[in-house]
Amino acid sequence: MPKTNKKTKTVTLKCGCNCCMLVAERTEWEDGEINFDISMQDSRYDHNNGSILNRIKNAFKILFGKPVYYNDIFIEGEEEYRKLVKDMEGLLEPITEKQ
User: What pTM was computed for the model?
Assistant: First the structure.
């Protein structure tokens, strides 16, 4: 039987250039199970990333153990990063009815 009743709490951080955002979510299910989901969500598509040449290049990088970067988030300044860390730590707290 699928779980239907849930409470969620979300932390969102937009990239400095507004090309994407980081979304972290805590979900509390009616049976007491707690799950976390972290995703990177694009708001702009990189047209060169999906070309045949780039796909072959990325395959060779993976083959030889090199990192392949699909997306990143630029955080300008220490204050914004500290806020993200504090908000992410807040996801460890149970969800209250006020949130």
Answer: 0.69
Q: What is the mean pLDDT of the chain?
A: 84
Note whether residue 99 is domain-resident.
Answer: no
Given a cut of 70, whether residue 1 has pLDDT beyond it is: no
96: in domain: no
Q: Which domain holds residue 15?
A: 6-90
Name the domain count of the chain. Answer: 1
Average pLDDT (47-67) is 81
State both tokens at 45.
């598509």
Angle at 19 between CA 60 and CA 64, to 5 degrees: 10
